[in-house]
Amino acid sequence: MADDRNRLVHIEGIASPGILGVAINLMEAAEYIGLDAEKLLGLCQSGHAPHYRLDGKGPWFKKQELSRWAKETLVQHWEGSPLPTAMPVLFHAETKQPRQPPKEIASVKSLISVASEAGFSGVYFLCHEGVVVYVGQSVCVAGRLAAHFGSNKLFDAVWAIPIPKQDLDRVEGAFIRILRPTYNISENGRINAPSQNSVNDNETLAMFDTTIK
């Protein structure tokens, strides 16, 4: 937690580059839309929140863009369901990645076909012959996948969904308990997954608009 606070203080002290015009820093943006600064930073790292970086520094924000995004993606209906957010699909024509995900996760919104540059925070699915065989998580999906190549896990496709890093455990755990992938279950039949909190798994997935149908 101390490292996170130090990082936020450091970010707060960086002035906006002139090339961006009128822009606000992380602390100002968090206060402007009423979010915790650390959560807003996580939404930037997962590729959800609109922001700017310059030579690795930032993030900075434009008030008009931030306001529009917050109204479209953070405001909830009276019944509590978040507004859906369309996410682009990443696909490399040179790879042999199947164009269609396994049926068991095909209905999950924000599902992305992972390319080598998929450096976002999220939950990923290793698949083999159209079946999810492993569910994992990472603050940098592409970097984590490198560890799976050459392992004993047999897979021919990878799909992922962007998730803020502070929510990775509960979303990953929910998918593991619902899908029960082969490589997430030990030899004695025990499911290897982060502990479940007070919210049930289906409600957890619904919170992130990632419900399995």
Describe the structure.
This protein has 213 residues and is an alpha+beta fold. It folds into 2 domains: 2-73, Arc Repressor Mutant, subunit A (Orthogonal Bundle), CATH 1.10.10; 112-207, GIY-YIG endonuclease (3-Layer(aba) Sandwich), CATH 3.40.1440. It is 30% helix and 14% strand. It contains 7 helices and 6 strands. The chain has helices at residues 2-12, 26-33, 37-45, 63-73, 141-145, 168-179, 201-207; strands at residues 52-54, 57-60, 112-113, 122-128, 131-138, 157-162. The strands form 2 sheets. It has a 4-stranded antiparallel sheet. Strands 1-2 form a two-stranded antiparallel sheet. α6 (168-179) packs across α7 (201-207). The longest helix has 12 residues, at 168-179. The radius of gyration is 18 Å and the shape is elongated. The model is unreliable at 1-13 and 80-95 (pLDDT under 50).
Most strands sheet: 4 strands, antiparallel
Q: Roughly what is the average pLDDT, rounded to an integer? A: 78
Low-confidence stretches: 1-13, 80-95
Which structural class should the secondary elements be placed in? Answer: alpha+beta
Globally, the shape reads elongated
How do the strands line up in the largest sheet? 3-6-4-5
Number of domains: 2
How many β-strand stretches?
A: 6
CATH topology-level fold name of the largest domain: GIY-YIG endonuclease
**Name of the CATH class of the largest domain:** Alpha Beta
CATH architecture of the largest domain: 3-Layer(aba) Sandwich
Write the CATH homologous superfamily of the largest domain: GIY-YIG endonuclease
- Rg for CA atoms: 18 Å
Q: Could you give the order of the helices and strands?
A: HHHEEHEEEHEHH
Quaternary structure classification: single chain
How many helices? The count is 7
Percent strand equals: 5-15%
Distance between the termini: 37 Å
Report the helical percentage: 25-40%
